[in-house]
Amino acid sequence: MTRAVVLASGFGSNLQTIIDRTDSGKLSIEVVAVISDQAQAFALQRAKLADIPAIFVDPKNFSSRIEYDVELSDEIKRLKADLIVLAGFMRILSIQFIESFPWRIMNIHPSLLPKYKGLNTHARVLNAGDRYHGATVHFVTEELDAGPIIIHKKVPVYSNDTEIELKNRVHECEYEIYPIAIQWFADGELSVDNGQVLRRGKPCFAELSHWWPVKLNFWGK
Ligand code: GRF
Prior knowledge:
Blueprint: E1 2-7, H1 13-23, E2 29-36, H2 42-49, E3 54-56, H3 65-78, E4 83-86, H4 95-100, E5 105-109, H5 121-128, E6 132-139, E7 149-156, H6 163-186, E8 190-193, E9 196-199, E10 202-203, E11 206-208, H7 212-216
Parallel strand pairs: 1-2, 1-4, 2-3, 4-5, 7-11
Antiparallel strand pairs: 5-6, 6-7, 8-9, 9-10
Helix pairs in contact: 1-6
The chain binds 5-O-phosphono-beta-D-ribofuranosylamine.
């Protein structure tokens, strides 16, 4: 069984989805710990409620990003994790950390990458007047929000959308695609060749329209 560590700084709704899917047997991984850089992160409470070790690594105890990341990586190695799932982890990881876990760190980003890297994606999409927005799961590389894409899903932007409405719509699709990508990893189906993610040896960058998983009954077990 794939041992996953989830790193989260905040609310942890993606973490909750992963926990729920795991508990209901729809996602075949074991979440071996949740680690946060924020003592008050609700994600840590969610972990405790689910009987998952909740670990706070306080940035104040380290004089540099690299020192912090060494502790993080030691902790992850102690946990014997196969996969690191970033779910709203608001720290930039050092190259040393990223290189310690090649193609074993996944992130979810609230935009259709490569568009809208960085923060405040929903407001930026609304300001630009885009008709579509979405979320992307990708492997993490040194360059922020630029690693090889595993899966993304598009959602429509309506002319009267508020930022909150749009954010909620994007979150719904995050809850759909992150477990899919994690399950592909857990099944040993993913590899990276020349900067491109392959699933079962074929380019897997799949764009899900909003009906696809329902129609194919992806979770229909
Ligand atoms: C999500 O929007 C995710 O795309 C981004 O951070 C947010 C985390 O939300 N990386 P939550 O903590 O999972 O609710």
